[in-house]
Design brief:
The protein is an alpha+beta fold. The protein has 4 helices and 3 strands, in the order H-H-H-E-H-E-E. It is globular. It starts with a helix and ends in a 5-residue tail after the last strand.
Length: 129
């Protein structure tokens, strides 16, 4: 089941990159999604995929909320924080995590560390002393 989700994720990325839904582009996208190497040895769980997809859906209202906060209240402090990567993350799930973090206006992933950390740049309101 999760193999199909990996193929759908690759197709979605292909369509986002090309912005073309012609029959030829769909055939090329399916061929690329199937020909790209994949790792059958990793244990992906459907629960992890569903959680990541739910977070992707919830990123949209959060992004609008944060955009309004930036417009109406100044965010003049920048910090770099380290966030732990959840356990058992495959490259597809790591991509979705980075997408979710970067999609919201207040945060962006600066670097992914192989030892299990995301380096995240975040803007926030300055705390009053």
């Amino acid at each position: 089941m999760t193999g199909y989700l990996n193929i759908l994720l690759r197709l979605a990325i292909w369509f986002l990159l090309t912005a073309n839904l012609s029959v030829t582009n769909i055939i090329i996208g399916v061929a690329i999604a199937l020909l790209l190497p994949h790792n059958d040895k990793t244990q992906e769980k459907l629960k992890d995929w569903l959680r990541a997809l739910w977070q992707s859906i919830m990123a949209f209202p959060i992004a609008y909320k944060e955009a309004l906060e930036i417009i109406f209240t100044p965010h003049d402090e920048e910090v770099i924080v380290m966030e732990r990567v959840p356990a058992r993350r495959t490259p597809g799930l790591i991509f979705l995590d980075i997408f979710i973090i970067t999609f919201t206006p207040k945060t962006i992933v600066v670097k992914y560390h192989e030892d299990g950390w995301y380096e995240v740049h975040r803007i926030q309101r300055r705390k009053k002393p």
